[in-house]
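Record Epoxyqueuosine reductase, 369 aa.
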Amino acid sequence: MIMSHSQNKQAAQNTDWSALAAQIKQWGAELGFQQTAITDTDLDDYETRLQQWLARDYHGDMQWMAEYGHKRSRPADLVSDTRRIISVRLDYLPEERIDLKALLDHPDKAYISRYALGRDYHKLMRKRLQQLADHIQQQIGPFGYRAFVDSAPVMEKALAEKAGLGWIGKHSNLLQRHTGSWFFLGELYTDLPLPVDEPASNHCGTCQACIDVCPTKAIVEPYVVDARRCISYLTIELKGSIPVALRKPMGNRIYGCDDCQLYCPWNRFADSSQEPDFDPRQRLDEAQLVELFQWDEETFNRNLEGSAIRRIGHERWLRNIAVALGNAATSSEVIAALQARTDHPSELVREHVHWALEQHQPVGKESSS
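=>
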């Protein structure tokens, strides 16, 4: 947590802040971060855009986006005495064995967002940010800090853009000219008067590949995403029933969606991650929908231990796969798998299973479900 400036007064008098900033970036690289940069706490422009986005109800059921007042856009309100934020990025794209575009809408395989194929990134990044803080503390003595990895009201993409790690693209993800967008972000809030880095410039130009390819047309205008239509929101954040009109466009995407990244020209420069923890587990990079749908809750929890996917729970897992099976090629195996869940205890699961079965009815034939 942030401490009083008085505790650091003597150390501050003897610190070469520019040299320390350079050292911090070196330590970041040694810890495995692909980039480390520093910015201040002025997010006024981003705050205005956030408020406009919230006013349009584009956050859907994510009420936490509207909570905490200005703590999200005013770092010092979240962690007192914050003066500088150290922003880091860590590549996560696993070495691919298959054509990802071919996997999209595959007739019987599942598509899972690439970031979720391996172990949950939160603990790994928090541990390394703590190690970075330890290095700084060993150099200058006690200082105030707090590490974040998608775990608090933090505008991580805005901070990363200000720090120069990339620019926020038309799909609202952060883009970097030399590596695309397949990376995680993390932050270390500090009370140190470090020199700041130059913000990144925008290089989207006239391209709108992400807008054109979005299956549910969630990118309602450049740089604005209506989360209520986004497949990542529908499969991860939404707790209730998926709107019927959006089920067909979801295809075989059962956890998250990467379309806007897959078709972004800048991602032709993306590097594969060197982190073993991000390697696919349980063959999730090419798993069969029917196989995943047959997992009971115990199998789900066991197979996905340490995975970000586990947070949605078994019920929503089945809901999502039911939709994908409804969009799959009709086969006796698919129909049998769905019929086996028609009496599931969860009304949410049953409703999506019945919808899926209806998709496999011959044209003009009424469903008996």
